[in-house]
């Protein structure tokens, strides 16, 4: 039975952890030139390592979320921090692209997949009232959004002042601080070491996602190989669901219960989460690539422009806890995608405008819009399930979000390479799918229930009292 009370000390390490993991996903976007020259590789090679980092997170989030039951939420959180910290140090001293991929893409990605599900599980377990939980999710989501938005700014400043390697040491320093704060955390529920773990399901789910996203990345080299990889990925995911249903028919516990997908509201919320992170990371990579690869801006100059996104996310994310008292979460998510669409139109208009500050209004609108959608989408999904399903839904939720980040970077990178540059024409070409996703986000959000139908189930609320 849960008896631990939530305090500010409880929230601090959780919000900081979300901040640094989101920071890691975007800060390398402004280091493309410096890192490619220093590591004797190409800009495309560095972009691929960014996409692989996000992909490893997405692929491992579901199985690692499930591990929180066997190992405990605090244990997974602490272990994830340690793995992430080691990866950051290896990245800082990497002599070439291969070691960078090991440290950043593999170890930091795996560490993030271990530590992020406990963040959302603990928030759901500690804060049970709708208004209070929305407030806390607002802080955590704001930390994630600000981490992604300030990644280019902070990473650019560190790179320009010291070195891109120092940016990874900065990450390891933040990890040490989080570990100190996290030592005071208490796990609300006892771990269950005897609980079965579906190893086959874990392998199938991870392999399917990896094959599919690598297929997107391969599109610029070989269309047939790309199509084959995506079909293979879809096939493996199909086998995964067949395996899950087989275990359920035998009365055994699978990696992911198919019952999670029977909740219509949660399904819609998961789609909006995927779209939000696809847009945030896609826009970040697209604008950073244009400013650096084509216009020759250095890391700090590029990073400063993204401060507009940071301001937008901060303002809207921290306002959600008040707005949710007056507006339905559906309305907030729809409004967020609409504002994001306006931001993308502004970014389209300035594609050929000289200078960088012309991008600031569009980036500000994107930040305002996505910051408005992040918290309601997370709360809709997490609140739809009781405590005994939080490990599964948290892993699934974070996997879907990070898969969106992977899609965003992979799609933008692939389309830029297909046009052989990041010029105005390539920029416009890569902006098209982002606009389509924004419109789709408005449509999906409109299908969510209004205020009269709360996202949380009665059973879930009862279990959390």
Please, could you describe this protein's structure?
The chain has 17 helices and no strands. With 465 residues, it is an all-alpha fold. The N terminus and C terminus are likely disordered.
Instruction: Report the uncertain regions.
Output: 1-5, 452-465
Gyration radius, in Å:
21 Å
> What's the order of the H and E elements?
HHHHHHHHHHHHHHHHH
Globally, the shape reads globular
Distance between the termini: 11 Å
Which strand-content bin applies to the residues? under 5%
Task: Quickly describe the structure.
By secondary structure, the protein is an all-alpha fold. The chain has helices at 8-26, 32-38, 43-71, 73-92, 97-126, 130-161, 164-182, 199-217, 223-249, 264-294, 299-305, 307-323, 329-349, 360-382, 390-418, 424-446, 458-463. Residues 1-5 and 452-465 have low confidence and may be disordered.
Detail the topology: elements first, then pairings.
Layout: H1 8-26, H2 32-38, H3 43-71, H4 73-92, H5 97-126, H6 130-161, H7 164-182, H8 199-217, H9 223-249, H10 264-294, H11 299-305, H12 307-323, H13 329-349, H14 360-382, H15 390-418, H16 424-446, H17 458-463
Helix pairs in contact: 1-5, 1-6, 1-7, 2-3, 3-4, 3-5, 3-8, 3-15, 4-5, 4-7, 5-15, 6-7, 6-11, 6-12, 6-14, 8-9, 8-15, 10-14, 10-15, 10-16, 12-14, 13-14, 13-16, 15-16
């Amino acid at each position: 039975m849960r008896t631990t009370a939530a305090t500010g000390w409880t929230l601090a390490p959780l919000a900081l952890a979300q901040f640094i993991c989101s920071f890691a996903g975007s800060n390398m976007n402004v280091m493309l030139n410096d890192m490619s020259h220093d590591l004797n590789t190409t800009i495309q090679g560095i972009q691929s390592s960014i996409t692989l980092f996000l992909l490893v997170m997405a692929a491992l989030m579901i199985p690692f979320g499930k591990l929180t039951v066997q190992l405990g939420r605090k244990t997974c959180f602490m272990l994830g921090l340690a793995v992430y910290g080691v990866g950051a140090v290896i990245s800082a001293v990497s002599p070439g692209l291969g070691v960078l991929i090991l440290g950043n893409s593999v170890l930091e990605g795996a560490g993030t997949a271990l530590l992020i599900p406990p963040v959302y599980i603990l928030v759901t377990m500690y804060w049970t009232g709708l208004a209070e939980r929305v407030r806390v999710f607002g802080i955590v989501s704001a930390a994630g959004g600000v981490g992604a938005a300030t990644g280019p700014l902070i990473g650019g400043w560190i790179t320009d002042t010291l070195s891109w390697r120092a940016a990874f040491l900065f990450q390891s320093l933040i990890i040490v601080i989080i570990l100190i704060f996290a030592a005071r955390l208490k796990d609300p529920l006892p771990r269950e070491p005897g609980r079965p773990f579906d190893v086959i399901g874990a392998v199938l789910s991870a392999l399917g996602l990896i094959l599919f996203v690598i297929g997107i990345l391969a599109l610029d080299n070989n269309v047939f190989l790309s199509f084959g990889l995506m079909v293979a990925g879809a096939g493996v995911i199909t086998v995964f669901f067949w395996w899950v249903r087989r275990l359920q028919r035998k009365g055994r516990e699978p990696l992911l219960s198919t019952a999670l997908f029977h909740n219509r509201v949660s399904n819609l919320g998961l789609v909006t989460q995927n779209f939000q992170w696809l847009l945030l990371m896609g826009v970040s990579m697209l604008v950073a690539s244009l400013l650096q690869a084509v216009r020759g801006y250095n890391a700090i100059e590029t990073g400063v422009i993204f401060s507009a996104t940071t301001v937008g996310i901060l303002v809207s994310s921290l306002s959600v806890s008040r707005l949710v008292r007056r507006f339905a979460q559906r309305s907030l998510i729809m409004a967020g995608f609409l504002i994001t669409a306006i931001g993308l139109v502004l970014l389209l208009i300035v594609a050929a405008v000289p200078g960088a500050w012309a991008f600031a209004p569009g980036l500000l609108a994107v930040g305002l819009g996505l910051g408005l959608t992040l918290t309601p989408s997370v709360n809709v999904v997490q609140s739809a399930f009781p405590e005994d399903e939080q490990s599964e839904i948290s892993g699934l939720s974070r996997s879907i979000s990070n898969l969106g980040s992977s899609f965003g970077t992979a799609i933008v990178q692939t389309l830029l390479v297909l046009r052989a540059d990041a010029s105005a024409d390539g920029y416009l070409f890569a902006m098209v799918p982002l606009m389509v996703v924004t419109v789709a986000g408005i449509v999906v959000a409109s299908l969510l229930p209004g205020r009269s139908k709360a996202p949380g189930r009665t059973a879930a609320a009862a279990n959390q009292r």
